[in-house]
Structures are given as C-alpha cells and as structure tokens.
Description:
Elements: H1 5-29, H2 32-35, E1 40-47, E2 58-61, E3 64-74, E4 79-86, E5 96-101, E6 108-113, H3 116-120, E7 130-131, E8 136-137, H4 142-155, H5 158-171, H6 176-195, H7 197-216, H8 218-238, H9 241-263, H10 267-284, H11 286-307, H12 403-410, H13 429-438
Parallel strand pairs: 1-7, 2-6, 5-8
Antiparallel strand pairs: 1-4, 2-3, 3-4, 5-6
Helix pairs in contact: 12-13
Amino acid sequence: MVLTALIKRQLRIFAVLATVALGLTFFHYARVPAMVGLGVYDVTVDFHDASGLYPRASVTYRGVEVGTVSNLEVTGDSAVATLRIDDGAKIPEGVTAELHSTSAIGEQYIDLVDSEKGAAGDDHLADGDAIPQDRSVAMPQITPVLDSVNRLLESVPKAKTQRLLSQVDAGLGGTGPELNELVTSAGQLLTEAQSQVDATTSLIAALQPVLTTQRDLGTVTKSYAGALNEVTGVLADNDSSDIRALLRSAPGGLDAATGTVKELQPVLPRMLANLTTNAEVLNTYLPEIRQTLVVYPATIARLQSTLNPRVEQGDVQLDLRAALNNPPTCLAGYLPPAERRRPGVTTTREIDSLAHCDIAPDNPTAVRGARNLPCPNSEERGPLPADCGLRFGSGVWPETSGTVAYDLAVGQGGDPDRTRSDGTEQPGGEELWKILVLAPLGSR
C-alpha cells in the first residue's frame, strides 16, 4: 500500500481528532473540573453515625443526582462528610441530609430533603455552608433489626407452634372454597366502602351530634334500662300464666291486626287523613263550638216557651210581623235569576259551594250572612277561613263522579230503565246503598 502525502495528512488529522475526542471524554466522565474545584461548591454534613458511607457516594436532591461525597472525616463524636455539589443545582439552605441505601445490602447515598423552612425561603446552599447534626438523619442499621427478629423467632416455642399449626390445618381442612368466598366478599365490601367513602364520611360527621346527645341522655337511658330490668324481673318471678298466654297469642293477634289494616286500604288512611283535617278545623273553631253548645239549650228553651207562653213568669213572648222585601233579598254573589233552572230538571251540574251574599259588611241586607262570620283567631270577619288568615289541609276523596249520592237524594234508582245524563245505566234502588258504601274502594 502506497501512502501518498494526502493520505498521510489525513491520517495525522484523524489522529489529532481522535486524541482530542478521547481527552474530552476522559475529561468529562472523570469529572476533572470537579476534581480541581471547577463548576462545583463544597458543603459539609455532620452525621452522628455515617456507617456505610464512602467517598464518591452519590448525593441526590428530589431524586436527581446533584453531586458526590468527596471526603469523610471522623471527629470525636461525629463523622463529617464533604459534599461536592454542581453549581447548577439550586438547593434550599434549610434542607435535611438523610442517609439512605439502595437496598438492604446496597450502597449508601445522601438524599437532600426539603424542610418547611428551606421550602419557604429563597436562600440556597453556597460554598462553605454546613448542615448541622440536628438536620442530618443516619440510616437505620439492618443488623439490630435482624438480631431482634432472630431473638423473636428463638423465643417462639417450636413444639407448641407446630401443634397449633397442625390444629389450624385440621380445623380449616376442606374449607378452601368457603375461605375463598369469604375473602372475595371482603374484597367486594372494601371496594363498595371505598366507592361510598364520601357518604360514609358524611354519616360519621352527622353521627357525632347524635352520639353526643345520647351521651348527655346517658343518665335517663340508664334509669329507663333499670326500670325495664325491674319490670322484666317481676314478670319473670311471677311467671304468670296470663302473660305466657298473651305472649303465645300476641303474634297471631298482631298478624290479624296487620291483615285487617291491609284489608282496610285505602279507606282507613283516607279516613284518618280526613279526621286529622276535621280535628284541625274543630280545634281552631273550638270557642265557637263551645258558644254554640252554651247558646243552643237556652235557644231551645226559649223556642219551647213560645209554644206555651207564660209572660208573667218571664218567658219569651213571640210576636209575628209581616215584612215584604224589607230588607230586600241579596242577589250579589249568587247565580242570576235568569240562569236558574226549573225544578223539574233532574240533571246535575257543577255548583259554587262557596257562594254567599257578596255585599258590603255594613249593608243591612243579610247582615247575619256568611260575609260577617266572626274569625276564631281575631276580631276580623269573613266568609272563609282564608279571609281570617287560616289554612287547613284538604280532604282525601276517592275518584267518583258524585252521581250516587245525588241519585240517593232524589230517590232515583227504582226504575231500572232510567239512564243518567251521561248515557250510562242508572243502578237499581236495591243496589244504591252498596254503591254508596263501596264507592271509596273504587280507586284501589
């Protein structure tokens, strides 16, 4: 092979470039600048125990390597490690130096961990700073732990443990599927509990006031429990045959009562609801009812005295006088005379059940009409409870057309050929009472 002058020059250039590349590579990976103190700064850490730490060990901050341990010195009561940290790593001044290991038997390294003071401040570590011993954490030694575990195992009686395991194996033998189902159910329960953690937390928060109330009522609850204990003790001592008979027959009686209540659906709930509404109205108008009960006997007595007048004894004297449209009949608030139907019309139509004489309260016409009814709760007057500021619940009624009551009232029902105004056949008279009784059951 002939080496020309051009080839020789190319080889020399290639050798120079290779030497420079290798030098730069060695210079970078050998950290020659850091070895001579360029681009780094030194920080010392005072450890009480730096067992396992060695020079050139890694130094990390937030999981990133930021330097190495350049030197270790042992003093009288501590070990001082010199950390060589890269200039580009901005580490807060208040960090804590913790000694860790990559595994149970792995190499040690120093991890710089933020503290509250260091995270809040803007100062960073600089060359010559020192981390005191109160901000350094030594690595727990595995040897004492293993020694403790070994002593624990040696303290366990082998014969009794073997006998216990044999008994557990005999007791659980053949229950593998049941245990598997139990573990699966427990896992499902935990999963459901985790999905309902917000509701559970709210329940626990709401349960605290309830438990506080129960704690405050502890004395009363204890007295109730004591009284119940005395009652049950007396019953147990007497051993009455009547009580035994009651206990034997009570379930059947309760079942019968429950069946009766079910059979009365929905009539009984409607009746109770309507009775509640009626009781509310009666309670509101109780003074007027009492006044009626007081005035009614006297009124009846006066009326009876008119049939057998005894003026000399102070009885009422009845005078009859003729009045021709004085005062005139009230027409305001009622159906006009032109719209009134003839008495011979037997069809039904909607009526205004709240119609009353709608004129001024001081008008002499129908002065004792509904418009001047006294309010039970004030000195006002009005035709309706709403005019007195009263509100009552509405009644609960079955969905019926209302023609049964009307037919009974007018006596229709004897003629089986009679039909209603809506074209349906009118029931016979002997069936009307059944319809009236059974009508509320039509909505079941």
